[in-house]
Amino acid sequence: MSKSPDATRRSERSRRAILDAALTLVGEVGYNKLTIEAIAARAGVGKQTIYRWWPSKAAVLLDASLSLSGEAVEEGGWTGFPDTGDLAADLKTVLRITVDQFLDERYDAPTRALTAAGATDPDLGTRFTEQLLEPQLALYEARLRTAVDAGQLPADTDLRLMVEMLVGPLTYRWLMRTAPLAHAHTDALVDVVLRGVGYVTTRPAAAGA
Amino acid sequence: MSKSPDATRRSERSRRAILDAALTLVGEVGYNKLTIEAIAARAGVGKQTIYRWWPSKAAVLLDASLSLSGEAVEEGGWTGFPDTGDLAADLKTVLRITVDQFLDERYDAPTRALTAAGATDPDLGTRFTEQLLEPQLALYEARLRTAVDAGQLPADTDLRLMVEMLVGPLTYRWLMRTAPLAHAHTDALVDVVLRGVGYVTTRPAAAGA
DNA sequence: GTATCAATGCGAGACGTCTCGTCTTTCATC
DNA sequence: GATGAAAGACGAGACGTCTCGCATTGATAC
């Protein structure tokens, strides 16, 4: 039984110091040159304390990012997703915020690192997707569902596909650096997607589909 | 002058063996655990032969992928992009092929590894994008341009955005593993995008889709 | 034409260095 | 007196350089 140390005795102080150090360091040196030794040194903890509680540096960073997105939620007062009744405006607002996050080095570095690590490590990728990504996608989907209920979107809309059509192209441009990110870009994206799925501003409209 | 070995004396046999070994190994152990020593051993070449011609293991893998996509072009007889006059069908065809490639382990592993490595290593990422990605995106863009010229798409269509709307969501689902890939998925994607940009099959069409 | 020879890439692997993850020791806390 | 934590010693393994013969090449001499 080499496993499972007693979690109740765990030092919260050390935990936080480790997560903070990981976030800082990944921004300074990048993911590839991020070492557990450096995290331990910066956090003022022994290496073993990290190895005791996390299986890999990727896992540390995942926890760190989770706490980071937790903070963001509290700061921004994000209980959910804006719902002004104007779907187009709401989507543009959220995507603009996402663009801003991608452009914020503090957020960009760890997220990029995790995305990359998750792409090649199926285990980590699954946790990354389930714990960080899916909850966000679910917010989009919920907002879209209210639009369906309001008759602004066809009842048979593939919401999952629609969410990925909103998030996918932006994420693609960000990850691959094929072009600079801009608010105008996501605004145009929203317009094309909404038109593509048959969005109607107010009344049920007689046309198409 | 320690630089510039004589390229005319280079062993083509060794070059191919190295690229093949790199592709095989990256599928077996993943990018992170891929070592130049292992590539050399598998290829039956000396380490120095790799270090003489490539600056890093990432560069080896990039060359290997380039040769792989080169093969794919020859096999499929891809001189360009299908152009049957039916834009929707052509896009669906190409995206279905892309789905098949993503599902092919031989292609998936190295591409995934490179994408991930490129995401965190800006240098490599730039070369990856320029040499592998952009040429493919350019094929899409060219096909779309002929559609514009044929009056099937509005003259002011943002082709770049449109290409990313086609490729982005698929790549996203592939990388993040948020859902299984399927032909039906990309078919639906094409339909929404085309409707969103105002695609008309033949004549200017009056109806709302 | 063929024999010789210097130049250069190649396969093999030894070498010193670096960083990894584990193990050991000592102290603090419950 | 257990157990976690800080510090660092330790072996493992990959790095990139190097040194060796061997094979191939192109130039020169006969």
UniProtKB/TrEMBL annotation, chains A, B:
Coiled-coil stretches: none
A GO term, aspect molecular function: transcription cis-regulatory region binding
Database matches in Gene3D superfamilies: Homeodomain-like, Tetracycline Repressor, domain 2
UniProt keyword Transcription present: yes
Stored InterPro entries: Homeodomain-like_sf, HTH-type_TetR-like_transc_reg, HTH_TetR, Tet_transcr_reg_TetR-rel_C_sf, TetR_C
Signal peptide: none
PROSITE patterns given in the database record: HTH_TETR_2
PANTHER family associated with the record: HTH-TYPE TRANSCRIPTIONAL REGULATOR RUTR, TETR-FAMILY TRANSCRIPTIONAL REGULATOR
Protein name: Transcriptional regulator, TetR family
Lineage of origin: Bacteria, Bacillati, Actinomycetota, Actinomycetes, Kitasatosporales
